[in-house]
Amino acid sequence: VLRYATLLCEKIAPQVVNAAFLLCEDPHSEVLKENMSTFEHVWFDRVKMLTMAVDSLISFDDFLAVSEAHISEDCQQGIQAIVEHNSEMLDRNAGYIRGRSVRVCDMVLNEIGQVPSDSYSENVKRATLCLRDNVLPQFKKRAEQIVSALTEVERTLKDGDDGNQTEMETKREVDEMIYACQKVYDAVTDIRHALLMNRNPEDVDSDNEYEEDGLPSDEACSQSSASEMQNQQQIMRQLPEESKREIQKQIDVFKITQRKFEYEVGKWDETGNDIIALAKKMCQIMMNMTDFTKYFI
Q1: Based on the domain organization, do 185 and 252 belong to the same domain?
Q2: Looking at residue 195, which CATH number applies to its domain?
């Protein structure tokens, strides 16, 4: 299905481009406008089919992880565009960030709409709506302001005005872009954390497997851990039943989160598929972005 959807997009792409070129040659022609509109609808339908095919092959958690990585990459390129005084590139990457974030919101709301309404689903919805209704509009407004300011800087450079003032403006714009991107990235991370809180133990590997993998090889450390465990068990026996239940509830949440984390880490293996290799590359890009932004902070 994925190959078929890709083939359909490849076949229609040249025709869409030609229709756009023809409309540019004669933008007032009603026939060409109608022709462009027809190809536009066909293109969107086929891209939607391709998107659905990709979604069916990628797990929801992997989709969120890759989306985060792409947003981080777009942020890095946006900052680089400011440094290079390229307003067009900055505007394009800001659009990428908004588009990916909107898709994350749509996917999460669709996914969470299939589960019963409870505190978990409400927390996920709250985090998602915060990104869609609060963070993204603020990011869009701030990005437009930065693009406008960068366009003015480009004009100043062409006119040969004061370079020191331009450098100060660039520094300020980089700081604002970092702040705006961080807000979006943190909001996407909050969505992932909210989704993680309701994972069932059956979704990941057993406790015993991870406990065996985590045992230290040193005998003294093992004996010390055993002694500490006995002391903790004695304390637990003396607690009221209500306190025991509350502690056990928190432990269960922690174990689910821990198992999910270890499961996710275990998937990033050198022998993995192309998606895993891409995720590793995105992780490296995120690290490079961190090193890059340190220079401006």
Answers
A1: yes
A2: 1.20.120.230
CATH number at 34 reads 1.10.287
CA-to-CA distance for 14 and 292, rounded, in angstroms?
38
Residues 160 and 242 in one domain: yes
pLDDT score at 220: 43
Question: Does any domain span residue 228?
Answer: no
For residue 168, what are the contacts with CB-CB under 8 A and spacing of at least 6?
Answer: none
pLDDT digits (tens, 9 = 90+) for 133-192: 999 999 999 988 888 888 887 777 776 665 566 677 777 888 888 888 888 988 988 888
Q: Give yes or no for residue 115 having a pLDDT over 50.
A: yes
Using CA atoms, how far apart are residues 297 and 182, in angstroms rounded to an integer? 13
Find out whether 174 and 79 touch, Cβ atoms under 8 Å.
yes
Which residue range(s) make up the domain with 64? 58-214+237-297
Helix residue spans in the chain (DSSP H)? 2-25, 30-57, 60-83, 87-112, 119-129, 136-159, 163-196, 207-213, 219-238, 241-267, 274-294
- 47 and 64 in a single domain? The answer is no
- At 222-255, the pLDDT tens digits run 444 455 555 555 555 666 666 666 666 666 666 6
**Long-range pairs for 36-40 at CB < 8 Å and ≥24 separation?**
39/12, 39/15, 40/16
102 and 26 within one domain: no
